[in-house]
Amino acid sequence: MSERQVIKRAKYKSSIKDPGTPGVLTMKRERFVFMPSDPRSLMKLNVEFRFIIGHKFSKEAPNKKALLNLTQDKGESYIFEFDSFPDRDACRDFVAMAIAPPANAGKASSDKPSVPPSSEQLSTAEMDRRIKLLQVDSELQKLHKEFVMGGVLTEAEFWATRKKSLDEKISSKSKQRVGLKSDMIFNVKPSSDGQSNRVKYSLTPEIIHQIFAEKPAVRRAYLNLVPKKMTETDFWMKYWRAEYLHSTKNIVAAAAEAAEDEELAVFLKQDDILASEARRKIRRVDPTLDMEADEGDDYTHLPDHGLSRDVSKDLTDSQYDLYKRSFLQDLNRHAAVVLEGRSVDVELGDTRSVAEALTRLKEVESANEASNTHVEQGRSDLISRMAELEDLQGPRDHPVAPLSIKDPRDYFDSQQANAIKTLGESQSGSKHKKSILNAHEAYGSLRKSISEIKDLGLTDPIIKSEVAMKVFSELTLRISNTKYHHGKDPHESILDGLPNATKEEILHQWTSIQELLKHFWSSYPITTTYLHIKVNKVKDAMSKIYQKLQVLFGPIEIKSSVRQDFRHPVSLLVQPMTQALDAAFAHYEVDFQKRSTKSVERPNGFV
Amino acid sequence: MTPVSRKLYTDDVSLLVVLIDTNPYFWSTNNSGLPYSKFLSHLVAFLNSILLLNQLNQVVGIATGVNSCGYIYDSSLAPPNKRAETLLQKLEEFVIKDEELSAEDSVDGIKSSLLSGSLSMALCYIQRVLRSGSLHPQPRILCLHGSPDGPGQYVAVMNSIFSAQRSMLPIDSCVIGAQHSAFLQQASHITGGIYSKPQQLDGLFQYLSTLFATDLHSRSFIQLHKSVGVDFRASCFCHKSTIDMGYICSVCLSIFCKPHKKCSTCGSTFGQPQATVSPTNLKRKAPDS
């Protein structure tokens, strides 16, 4: 706030009709005070801005009074009449400023997050962006509330890592380049008064840009003539005169005027720059693509595209051919320019700079082409290669790399060796049972068992009931245990399977831990006291969260509160959090030890 | 060639091909586990119960010996009141034949039985039934195995697994031996069958009837137990040891445990690895989960 207080002469009215008591209105930051001129009057006012919720003011008009109406929460309003409008405006601005920030603080508890006062000078734009970001992202808001309000992190640190998301908001709109208009705005018919003989042409920077882009001859003339030979207005007058002549389709008159005025002739004739450009383009066509492209295709700049018209209709001589122009030409040229896009990003204000920029662009292009001899060489190579007739060539030996395929048996043998090794590993347990078996003995024992069962038959019952029960329960336990279902379905996630409250809690803890750890690790190595204090604060917050984790998801708690099924996944999720915190604490301890030993050593040798 | 006739697809008919491990070396040294007679009694009871489930059910038994494999039992051919006798009789004859085929007298360790052979025989039989019968029998293979995996059969076993996958035949495996069988784990995983290694061997019948008795149609809605994991670990090509993390040639996908200059399988040269950046600053984020 630039002013501390505003003191103005004003009249206080309790209602609009009231003539008002004259006095002095003093506005300070927190309150405004009205002292009537008449010391005996009772109309003293001393109201804090806290209670003022809005202000209204009358419009600025020669016959009206300058009124300012401050509305209070309960419906009461204070109306002041000022001597002059500037006075009223000054008071009004002051009131606006005085009301706005307290309103912010007042609403902080409900919806809008507040930004605590900091020692930095922040622009209002920056504050707005932060507030908007906090409003949009509720997770961020929670973190902000927890840490910045809790005093663990300062505002600057919190936002330091989020510069990217702040900046992105504002830069999203300026990335697009505006293209050229597709309507031919310079070809609009001039407005003319029916009565007088005048026609009015309008000229805007956009139109000038279009003209220069489409008619390079005009551009060249502009650069040459202005401001040496004639002024800009004269130039444009001549240009519009030429346009007018064209629009009347009076070729004879055009020729006549052109003969008189050299400069006008430039506008009336065909655009020779365009012609040369078209010719150059034809030459650049790759003959392997289009062998037919040659000088004859050079017609885009000619009227009627070089089509032969019925000559009997035209009564004019060939000398007037130069001055003919058709709408089709203009349209095609315009379309070509629009499709090329806006190649010059120059401010449209200065005509001359636009013209120069466009000229420079064209020159650069032509210079690039001229100097590109490699392109020529490449093209002639390509032509000679494409022109070959393959069946007339002699046989050519292709450079072939010999195929080397290894014997696939090697792979399988390796797999077998591997299998043997794994079996060897697993068999090591039963090695002590290995005995040299006699084949005869082995087969003999087998046959014995078979005949034994043939004689005995099946036992009754085939298995004992307790054994069957045990087996059955073991199998069903295996089926129902979620341990065997995890990770099988790629679409389902562990988090989604948990109840909502648990999931929210876990996610919130995780994000807070991430935030704290980010700040913790970034402040090492500790070089200043500021970092030292910061690390201590962060560490305290981390230990608080650690304890909370233990309480919520600790081994005892999980067993009782969380369902049996979720015990395992929850502990799986909580484990890395505790591990990360443990790592941070360990590092802190080590560093602390080092520092304390260092500080102890120093008095020995140093002061 | 019989003309392809319209097949009747019935719901819960099953054709069960049981591969019975008849490795004498394994069964005679299996001291802590199930004796062979008990095993056979559980098996026979199980086969009877399968045949009781549906009139059209069919059971085929194939013995997996050390030197040969053979068809032991076919429920469609055997007399209905003498099933067990027929099976055991044939089994004994098979064991005698197998013994005659054995070359050496004494053997060091436990020889592996011919799993690939019996798998192939099972597949052939099933193919024949599929092409000739009028009913689509919903075939599946149950492998009761105990002896260790023979590494020389790796290729053949994998081939039969893939052809079973092609014909959509699940291969269920019940491993009775002391250790897991990598071949059968892979077989069940690839073909979509059940792999189980029962802990309680004297309750084998309960295992068999709970897990392996369900026909293919019911498997879509009965939740059967899933295996915890399959050992798919690769082995490196240079040392033939199983590794968890290694280097792969991007041309032929061969695996190495150490960085090489050249791939030994396809001969392509590798680019140089970049020098690792030493962490000079302590600024780092907390480790992610």
Structural description of this entry:
- The complex is a heterodimer of chains A (607) and B (289).
- With 607 residues, chain A is of the alpha+beta class.
- Chain A contains 22 helices and ten strands.
- Chain A has helices spanning 85-108, 124-136, 138-149, 155-160, 163-171, 205-214, 216-225, 232-248, 251-260, 262-268, 272-284, 327-340, 351-371, 373-386, 408-427, 439-456, 465-480, 494-497, 500-522, 529-553, 555-561, 564-605, and strands at 6-13, 21-27, 31-36, 45-48, 52-57, 66-72, 77-82, 191-192, 199-200, 437-438.
- In chain A, the strands form two sheets. Chain A has a seven-stranded antiparallel sheet, with helices on one face. A two-stranded antiparallel ribbon of chain A has the order 8-9.
- In chain A, a hairpin with a 3-residue loop joins strand 2 and strand 3.
- Chain A is flat and about 135 Å long.
- Chain A starts with 5 loop residues before the first strand and ends with a helix.
- By secondary structure, chain B is an alpha/beta fold.
- Chain B contains seven helices and 13 strands.
- Chain B folds into two domains: 14-221, Rossmann fold (3-Layer(aba) Sandwich), CATH 3.40.50; 233-272, no CATH class.
- Helix content of chain B is 32%, strand content 17%.
- Chains A and B meet through helix 15, strand 10, helix 16, helix 17 and helix 19 of A and helix 1, helix 2, helix 3, strand 5 and helix 7 of B.
Characterize the largest beta sheet of chain B: strand count, sense, and whether it forms a barrel: 6 strands, mixed
Strand order of the largest sheet of chain B: 4-3-2-7-8-9
Strand order of the largest sheet of chain A: 4-3-2-1-7-6-5
Give the termini separation of chain B.
62 Å
By secondary-structure content and strand pairing, the structural class of chain B works out as alpha/beta
Mean pLDDT over all positions of chain A: 70
User: Helical amount among residues of chain B, as a percent range?
Assistant: 25-40%
Number of strands of chain B: 13
Keywords (chain B): DNA damage, DNA repair, Metal-binding, Nucleus, Transcription, Transcription regulation, Zinc, Zinc-finger
Subcellular location (chain B): Nucleus
Protein name (chain B): General transcription and DNA repair factor IIH subunit TFB4
Pfam families (chain B): Tfb4 (PF03850)
